[in-house]
Fold this protein.
Amino acid sequence: MRIGFNPQKSEKKINLTTYHRVIVVVYIPNEEGFYKNSYDVFKLCLDSLVATINSNTAITIVNNGSYQKVTELLQNYLKDKKIDSLIHHSVNIGKIDALIGAARGAREQLITYSDSDILFQKGWQENVEKIFSTFSNVGSVSPISVRYGLFYGTSSVLKQIIFRKIKIKFEPIPENFDSYNKYLKSINWDTDKNEKKNWPVIERNNTKAIIGSGHQVVTISREILFKSVPTNPSLTLVGGDSEYKYVDEPIDKLGKLRLCTYTNFAFHMGNNLEDWMIDVHKNNLKATNNSLEVVYKKESNPDLLYSKYKTVIYLLRKKITKKVFKLIYKDYSL
């Protein structure tokens, strides 16, 4: 039987002290073969994240069936309050299902998805949030600047450009040359040879952003999770079209802008540490923390079902906007 009165019932509602949550999913089963150096890479990822966020941000780590050494590391980070939340799965349930499950339990307005091999650079959070606060109807922003994302999940951006709601210009960004080549190497793509190649850039109130992004690390608006992300589980360990269907496409389906920062503020490390990565983190520790306070609008009630009718309309819009854009901007060069 119950004795006494539960004191929580007389308490007021919870006041959120954070508006931004970062969720990292990690799966390291051992230290052999592909995973030989993954523990060190993940630790640098985690340390760089802790060193570069402001006090309005919380961190959730999803341990997706990793081996004991990783589990012990995460328990220590939780004990030391370096991370806010720790979710353990005894087996690997798949990257996307682990990620989306944790994200839907978050209460913050901005949610950053991150792989476990991302090196964060000081200023990433402030610059990502600045784009959310400057541009209208932003759905996601990545701190990794990519040049070839113009037509990848961006029909909503192209539509606004076609209707002159957003102005686009193609310009070189030489300061991204080295960092972008590091990114291309990390995913085994050919590197760029010419730093004067153009990037697809939009601008508002002296703030610039690049159209499109990858999905290794990306900050989204929370409402997307409940309006256009599939409600069924992915049931995919990793890869396939799971990241496109659950991370990239939902942003575009909802009519939101998919962007990345004008200059690079994060790196995809892969599964091996290099000296320059250590140097980036050393610079993080030297830098001062100049937080940017951003006020977000309260989100509307979520609509869990994205109807088949809307899906057909989206696919038509996606096809038509790309063709119209190429007709209008036929002389563009990337």
Observations:
- Residues 308-328 form the longest helix (21 residues).
